[in-house]
């Protein structure tokens, strides 16, 4: 709306000034300065809010990266900023810090864990100097569900058996060689090895889907993939927009002509409305 007012400023002035009853509503230069300052600060942020308001792809993992992007790029102090623009940026920065930095520990854990489990980001925005990477690895180790890793590895080995080959001289020596026995490792060691492999692997392209990624690598990272599936960190919505859309759908279902619907029927119709799209 602010963008539209600035774009049509001259037309608004002419229209309001043409009638004495509305001439007092003609925006002053102070009004235009305020609108321009608001537009300068908020316009670059509109695309970020649109991205985080979606519910058809993973959004919660991008909250911390977006906060870094907003602070370092969009709210960065510029030499051309007016005092009003500077004050608006400062108030936005303080509000974001209050919302995400000074809130409870549980919110931080969810945001950091979701970001870590998103192969597009991993440890990129974790502070190594504050041991956030080690703390995250410890949290993952403590909360990973128990799974049958041994049986999975055996089944993988059985599937990877090479085709039968004809007997040769080398096969006679192989039959008499002592096979190396792999030492058993604890769950913690296995998870640590899995975490190290996951962190060192290439990041996922931003155009790819993190949920599809974990579906494809569930044999490569059994503990991490089960953690993603069980606790569903990546399925949390970053904003309340999806909930608001759900309430809007319920409002469209319960109309004056259908006011006698029972609550159970409303729940069923709302569920079908959102899941049959």
TrEMBL record:
Name of the protein this chain belongs to: HAT C-terminal dimerisation domain-containing protein
InterPro entries xref list: HATC_C_dom, RNaseH-like_sf, ZnF_BED_domain_contain
Residue ranges of domain HAT C-terminal dimerisation in the record: 194-276
Pfam families with a match to the protein in the record: Dimer_Tnp_hAT
Organism, as annotated: Amphimedon queenslandica
GO MF annotation, one: protein dimerization activity
Protein origin, superkingdom: Eukaryota
